[in-house]
TrEMBL record:
It holds the Pfam family RuvA_N. GO terms for molecular function: ATP binding; four-way junction DNA binding; four-way junction helicase activity; hydrolase activity. One of its GO terms (biological process) is DNA repair. Has three domains with a flexible linker between the domains II and III and assumes an 'L' shape. Domain III is highly mobile and contacts RuvB. Homotetramer. Forms an RuvA(8)-RuvB(12)-Holliday junction (HJ) complex. HJ DNA is sandwiched between 2 RuvA tetramers; dsDNA enters through RuvA and exits via RuvB. An RuvB hexamer assembles on each DNA strand where it exits the tetramer. Each RuvB hexamer is contacted by two RuvA subunits (via domain III) on 2 adjacent RuvB subunits; this complex drives branch migration. In the full resolvosome a probable DNA-RuvA(4)-RuvB(12)-RuvC(2) complex forms which resolves the HJ. One of its GO terms (cellular component) is cytoplasm. This is Holliday junction branch migration complex subunit RuvA. The gene is ruvA. Keywords: ATP-binding, Cytoplasm, DNA damage, DNA recombination, DNA repair, DNA-binding, Helicase, Hydrolase, Nucleotide-binding.
Length: 200
């Protein structure tokens, strides 16, 4: 089992990134690919390896605490890797833990693919583990990108594609797109964060 990869992130896509380690490119699915720095040496990504009959997948995280929260969510019946990543895409992890501690079902049902039954199951199965879920989370690093003059706004397009990849419906994505279009000169990461805030 891998603990982390240390290398250079060479590609970022809406639902995954590629990190090159000693000449080998690893495809890693992450909650927000645009929050990681591109083409910088010695970037560390904590990883979780999932093995199924038909695939071996890597899921990546900014730090060990984020990875621990992911594995706790996976242990909940009915929560798969995609749902867990969609939950982690919202940077307010402490808000999630507080919702679990306070039996706040409505907060958790705002995540894509999470209904009341699954939200209740998350609370029931993790409520007694709240102390282990509340370490001090490191803030995800802000990746500075130069604003673009391109009227098509590829940063916004990538952010909207990332929201769809996380499981949000086309209707929900379209709803926040109009608000995001009013924001100018943001990076893909910033658009994605604002979109997640609007959706939650």
């Amino acid at each position: 089992m891998y603990e982390y990869l240390l290398g250079t992130i060479t590609e970022a896509h809406p639902d995954y990134l590629v990190i090159e380690v000693n000449g080998v490119g690893f495809r890693v699915q992450v909650a927000n690919p645009y929050s990681y720095p591109l083409n910088e040496d010695a970037t560390k990504i904590y990883v979780y390896q999932a093995v199924r009959d038909d695939a071996i997948s890597l899921f990546g995280f900014h730090n060990a605490e984020e990875k621990r929260l992911f594995t706790k969510l996976l242990a909940v019946s009915g929560i798969g890797p995609k749902s867990a990543l969609a939950i982690l895409a919202n940077p307010d992890h402490e808000g999630l833990v507080e919702a679990i501690a306070n039996n706040n079902v409505s907060y958790i049902t705002k995540f894509p693919g999470i209904g009341k039954k699954t939200a209740s199951r998350i609370i029931i199965e993790l409520q007694d583990k709240v102390d282990s879920l509340l370490p001090t989370f490191d803030l995800q690093p802000q990746v500075e990108q130069l604003p673009t003059n391109n009227q098509d706004n590829p940063e916004l397009a990538d952010a909207l594609a990332a929201l769809k990849a996380l499981g949000y419906s086309a209707k929900d994505v379209k709803k926040v797109a109009s608000s995001l279009k009013q924001e100018g000169g943001l990076s893909t990461d910033q658009y994605l964060r604002k979109g997640l805030t609007l959706l939650s």
